[in-house]
Amino acid sequence: MAKRIKTPADIGALVRIVRKEQNLRQDELAGVAGVGLRFIVDLEAGKPTAQIGKVLQVLQTLGCSIDILAPGERRK
User: Fold this and answer.
1) Per-block average pLDDT, block size 10, for the chain (76 residues)?
2) DSSP code per residue over 19-74
3) Burial of 69 (0-12, 13-18, 19+ CB in 10 A)
4) Shortest CA distance to 22 belongs to which of 46, 65, 38, 14?
5) Ranges for the HTH cro/C1-type domain?
6) How is domain 8-62 classified at the CATH fold level?
7) What is the pLDDT of residue 51?
């Protein structure tokens, strides 16, 4: 599922959707991702100041990846 991300809230919504698809509770995701429960709660709420390293850690744990396109590039 490719999803265009424009805001922290978009990332949070994606994390919530994928977490639920994997039948994980927030505390379970926090444990396997190596972050705190509060971080997952804040991330899913779209907190704009979430630490990028931890965000990437959570996304990787869920099996998600990020592709960043430079201006003028197109998706393949």
Assistant:
1) 88 97 98 98 97 97 92 77
2) HHHTT--HHHHHHHHTS-HHHHHHHHTT-TT--HHHHHHHHHHHT-----PPTT--
3) exposed
4) 14
5) 15-69
6) 434 Repressor (Amino-terminal Domain) (1.10.260)
7) 96
The answer to whether 43 touches 15, Cβ cutoff 8 Å, is yes
Residues 6+ apart with CB under 8 A from 57: 33, 34, 35
- Please report the pLDDT score of residue 42 as a whole number: 98
Long-range contacts, 21-28 (Cβ 8 Å, 24+): 22/62
Quote the DSSP letter at residue 7: S
Global pTM value: 0.89
